[in-house]
Amino acid sequence: MRISATMIVAALLLLNASPELAARDRRVNQIPNGLQFDCQTCHETFGGSPLNDFGLDVRDNFLTPSGAAGNVDWVIELAMLDSDGDGFTNGEELQDPLALWSSGAPRPGNQSLLSNPGFGTSVPDGPGSNVIVALNGFGNLVGRWMEMRLVDVETGMEVWSTARSGVPSDAFAVGLMGALETRDYFVDFYVDGNGNMEYDAPPVDEAWRIRLDNVEGHSNLDFTYNTNYTDIQWGEIVSVNEGASFAGVELLANTPNPVQGVTAFNFTLESAHNVRLQVLDARGSLVAAVTNDQFAPGVHRVEWSAAALAPGVYFYRLEAGAAVLVRRMLVLR
Ligand SMILES: [Ca+2]
Ligand SMILES: [Ca+2]
Ligand SMILES: [Ca+2]
Question: Which of 55, 83, 288, 325 makes a 20 to 30 Å CA pair with 298?
Answer without folding.
Answer: 288
